[in-house]
Design goal:
There is one protein chain. The protein is of the alpha/beta class. It folds into three domains: 2-95, NAD(P)-binding Rossmann-like Domain (Rossmann fold, 3-Layer(aba) Sandwich), CATH 3.40.50.720; 100-302, UDP-N-acetylmuramoyl-L-alanine:D-glutamate ligase, CATH 3.40.1190.10; 311-447, Alpha-Beta Complex (Protein-Tyrosine Phosphatase, Chain A), CATH 3.90.190. Helices cover 37% and strands 20% of the residues. Helix 6 crosses helix 12, helix 6 (119-132) crosses helix 13 (293-302) and helix 16 (396-406) crosses helix 17. The longest helix has 20 residues, at 428-447. It is globular and about 65 Å long. The protein starts with a strand and ends with a helix.
Length: 450
């Protein structure tokens, strides 16, 4: 077999290794080679594996390469308009993502988790529930480790976070359990429209059949519509109490679909509304493939919040400071704001083609807004016709100081940007770390004797 791999980041290298080990003739195209040691190391590893490496080819050259192979494997973020994918489509060459190849090589059940927000939390929580039940499990996929590597591990279950970019090219992907969280606008700059984004997410269930299971967020309109057309079994999760046949919350207790009590909400280490949804989704998926009730309950008691996801980073003079830098779309920000009664919101960064105007629906809970970064004017415009005061700040130091001036005792200051971080940072983690550092400096100053 002749294969063309597009992109030589970690996923591209993993695909290259697997295909060359299987005897395929692999060519790797890297559109933007750089001088970093990480890239140089991956390039050497690809060549050592036996692959040919073509760096920065023109559109005509890469199109010719794609037309002359049996398989094209695009790395995540490679757009459908890439010359290789256009040429492959014209030539009738199969285009498949890494997760599609991984699933057909898996010797164990795969749980695939997708949705707009909460994917990483549900992936890691599901894995923890299985491990606490004595089931050997591995978290993989968009969370970090390529799925095509993880399916070669000696484990009983692989739990994979899968993105819309990965699902775009999946003509056969069939997880034993699919978890579909709420689907709200995101990555429209890549997909081109919300409809195309939804279509990509829906592919997580497209090839399920028989006894496969879809776990879906029944409180989300899009997830509910996708579930209605699902080809296999489905079970919803909801924080509503009147929900027969679903995992739900009743009398402040997480409850199984059959009505049995799972765990009181107050036994969870953190239990905001979205935490409850995530916990129910993880429990439904884990129990389907062998987790025990004791293992699930132990995880609910012990599971720690992941960094940069509504994580408390400071408290002083009656004000709590939360880092939710992972919130890179408006829906994530609105969910975070809904967890508190009075919020000073820090929002901004680089917009991903999304409508930031929806943030105005949070006005009843907002003390004020600090708009920062490249999208600061767009954030400010969202609140232009509301009574919410808005201050624009150029960078994080100024943003934190402005938020401190707005906040009153009992308030929450929340970094929940609704935008990507790439206008000023290498990623959301770096942005959150900068926020936390500024908060530590500020709170230490406030506590210091005067």
């Amino acid at each position: 077999m002749r294969a063309l791999v597009i992109g030589l980041a970690e996923t591209g290298l993993a695909v290259t290794r697997v295909l060359t080990e299987e005897g395929a003739h692999v060519t790797v195209v890297e559109d933007a080679p750089d001088a970093s040691s990480g890239y140089a190391t991956r390039a050497e590893q690809a060549r050592t594996a036996g692959a040919a490496l073509v760096e920065a080819p023109g559109a005509e050259a890469v199109g010719a390469l794609a037309s002359g192979v049996d398989l094209v494997v695009p790395s995540p973020l490679v757009r459908p308009s890439h010359p290789a994918l256009v040429a492959a489509a014209r030539a009738g060459v199969a285009v498949r993502s890494e997760i599609d190849l991984a699933a057909e090589r898996a010797r164990m059940p795969i749980i695939a988790v997708t949705g707009t927000n909460g994917k990483t939390t549900v992936t890691t929580m599901t894995t923890a529930m299985l491990e606490a039940s004595g089931v050997a499990a591995r978290a993989a996929g968009n969370i970090g480790r390529p799925l095509i590597e993880a399916v070669g591990d000696d484990v009983a279950v692989v739990v994979a976070e899968v993105s819309s970019f990965q699902l775009e090219f999946t003509p056969t992907f069939r997880p034993r359990v699919a978890v579909l969280l709420a689907v709200t606008p995101d990555h429209l700059d890549w997909h081109g429209s919300f409809e195309a984004y939804v279509d990509a997410k829906a592919r997580v269930v497209a090839h399920q059949a028989g006894d496969d299971l879809l776990v879906y967020d029944a409180d989300d309109d899009i997830a509910r519509k996708i579930a209605a057309d699902a080809p296999a079994r489905t079970v919803g999760v909801t924080v509503r109490s009147a929900a027969a046949g679903m995992f739900h919350v009743a009398h402040d207790t997480l409850t199984l679909a059959d009505g049995r009590e799972l765990a009181p909400v107050d036994t969870m280490r953190r239990a905001f509304r979205h935490d409850q949804t995530n916990a129910l989704a993880a429990a439904a998926a884990a129990l389907e493939v062998g987790a025990t009730l004791d293992g699930v309950r132990a995880t609910l008691r012990n599971y720690a919040t992941m960094p940069h996801r509504v994580a408390l980073v400071g408290e002083a003079i009656g004000v709590r400071w939360y880092d939710d830098s992972k919130a890179t779309n408006p829906d994530a920000t609105l969910r975070a704001v809904a967890s508190f009664d009075s919020v000073v919101l820090l929002a901004g960064g680089r917009n991903k083609g999304l409508d930031l105007g929806v943030l105005r629906t949070a006005v009843p809970r907002l003390r004020g807004v600090v708009a920062f970064g490249e999208a600061a004017p767009e954030v400010a415009a969202a609140f232009a016709s509301t009574p919410t005061p808005v201050v624009e700040a150029g960078e994080m130091h100024a943003a934190v100081r402005a938020a401190a001036a707005m906040a009153q005792p009992g308030d929450v200051v929340l970094l929940s940007p609704a935008c990507a971080s790439f206008d000023a940072y290498s990623g959301y983690a770096a942005r959150g770390d900068d926020f936390a550092a500024e908060v530590r400096t500020l709170t230490s100053e406030e506590r210091s004797p005067r």
